[in-house]
Design goal:
It is built from 12 helices and 10 strands. A hairpin with a 2-residue loop joins strand 2 and strand 3. 25% of the residues are buried. With 311 residues, the chain is α/β, with parallel strands linked by helices. The radius of gyration is 31 Å and the shape is elongated. The termini are far apart. It binds S-adenosylmethionine (SAM). S-adenosylmethionine (SAM) binds next to helix 8.
Length: 311
Amino acid sequence: MVEHCEILKLLGDSTRLRMLQLLFKEELSVAELQKILNMGQSRISTHLSLLRQAELVNVRKEGKKVFYSYREQPDRAVEGLMQNVFAVTQSQAQVRADFKHLVHILDKRRKVSEEYFNSIAERLGKNYCPGRSWESIGHMLLQLTPNLVFADLGSGEGVIAHLLAKKAKHVYCVDSSPKMVQVGSDIAKKHELVNLTYQLGDIESVPLSDNSIDVAILSQALHHASRPQVAINEAYRILKPGGRLLVLDLKEHKFLKAKELYADRWLGFSENTLYQYLKAAGFQQIDVYSASKETREPFFETLLAAGTKGS
Ligand SMILES: C[S@@+](CC[C@H](N)C(=O)[O-])C[C@H]1O[C@@H](n2cnc3c(N)ncnc32)[C@H](O)[C@@H]1O
């Protein structure tokens, strides 16, 4: 621990006191301190080094830049002393002038970021934004998911189901491929997801009871059904009154190769066809809209169709 008289000695120098006043308000680089204090780099660095040795400042490196900030003192008596010194000296003309300069520096920093975002407004949504991914957005939205019972119909290995299982009361996966069911069950077991059950079954004859599910999902599965209307009727049957159906499927397209490449039965559906399927099954509050469009050929577009089973 630094001796109290050492700290008093350090505070006895007006430049160091001005520096501490500034660093108490804001984390600053050496260059920024230079500008505010109008002093050369070596003088500033010498003072900073003393403050650093006395553990009065924090140091943070960012590439070649070094930032300093005031370090709150663990010794309450010392921290009290520092606060008193800051309070008493803040009205001095020199310190007030420094604070004015500080406001300019902070304004400049803000402007750099503001100008950048001004220049990309209207493009940010479409452009690359470091760290932003649909996967991370999915995880964020998942936090809003209530504790419900889900049925993932035509689940595959369960990309969506595994995510939902983190928050759901229970997730039932239904898929007609024994291999998918096996792989999905193994993954669930490995991750100890006890609220996730896989069942071999057809989306046109779902092996789940009537009125037992809060949310039914058909993600890229409906275009594999031989009778899509029957699959939608089945989703309606298993839903509790008030339950919701969410369908994600391709908008109708002309990419014939999808049949051999992805074993698709239907080349997607029009908005109206999906609407009519849900309406005929008995769903209410139906909403169908385009959720995304790929930017590469054949420009697949995904529709989201949602409906509620009346109570
Ligand atoms: C394109 S994958 C979609 C998987 C998952 N829903 C997703 O979004 O990642 C289609 C899945 O539906 C399953 N499937 C196809 N026809 C089915 C049917 N009639 N009944 C149940 N599952 C079916 C396939 O085995 C496959 O796992």
